[in-house]
Structures are given as structure tokens and as C-alpha cells.
């Protein structure tokens, strides 16, 4: 189809940019990575490398992560 494949990092960013955010379980399912790998990407890539502000909030159904500021997501 000529479209570029969606990377795992792009999938994470898309989920984190949703108004409802994403749980670790959402991110694990979407990327087929282990929990510790997802957490590493959140801290190392999303926060440090890409410069996004990442908000973590405990909600009724568990902890939810959202990008709240920093570099504009693409």
C-alpha cells in the first residue's frame, strides 16, 4: 500500500496522547513488549529523548499515563 509501518514508539505515543491516556497493560498489549521494557521506554525515550512531559495518575481502574506537555507529539 506504500504506507510506512507504524513503529512501536509511534504506537506508544498515540496511546499516551489520548485524552483517557493509557495503562501499562494497554501499552504492553499494543507493542507486545514486557512491562519493564515499556516502563524503560516511558522514562528513557518519551521523557528524556523526546522531551515529553509524562503524567501518571492513579485512577479507579489503575494507574494511567498521559503526555501532558513538552515537545508536540507527531
Topology:
Blueprint: H1 8-16, H2 24-31, H3 35-49, E1 52-59, E2 62-70
Antiparallel strand pairs: 1-2
Q: Judging from the principal axes of the Cα atoms, what is the shape?
A: globular
Structural class: alpha+beta
Largest sheet: 2 strands, antiparallel
Give the count of helical stretches: 3
Strand order of the largest sheet: 1-2
Could you give a short description of this structure?
This protein is an alpha+beta fold. It contains 3 helices and 2 strands.
Task: Give a written overview of the molecule.
The protein is an alpha+beta fold. 43% of the residues lie in helices and 23% in strands. It is built from 3 helices and 2 strands. The protein has a two-stranded antiparallel ribbon with strand order 1-2. Helix 1 packs antiparallel against helix 2 (24-31). It is globular, with a radius of gyration of 12 Å. The mean pLDDT is 88.
Amino acid at each position: 500500500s506504500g504506507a510506512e509501518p507504524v513503529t512501536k514508539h509511534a504506537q506508544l505515543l498515540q496511546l499516551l496522547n489520548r485524552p483517557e491516556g493509557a495503562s501499562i497493560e494497554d501499552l504492553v498489549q499494543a507493542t507486545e513488549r514486557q512491562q519493564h521494557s515499556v516502563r524503560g521506554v516511558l522514562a528513557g525515550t518519551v521523557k528524556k529523548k523526546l522531551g515529553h512531559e509524562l503524567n501518571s495518575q492513579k485512577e479507579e481502574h489503575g494507574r494511567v499515563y498521559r503526555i501532558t506537555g513538552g515537545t508536540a507529539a507527531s
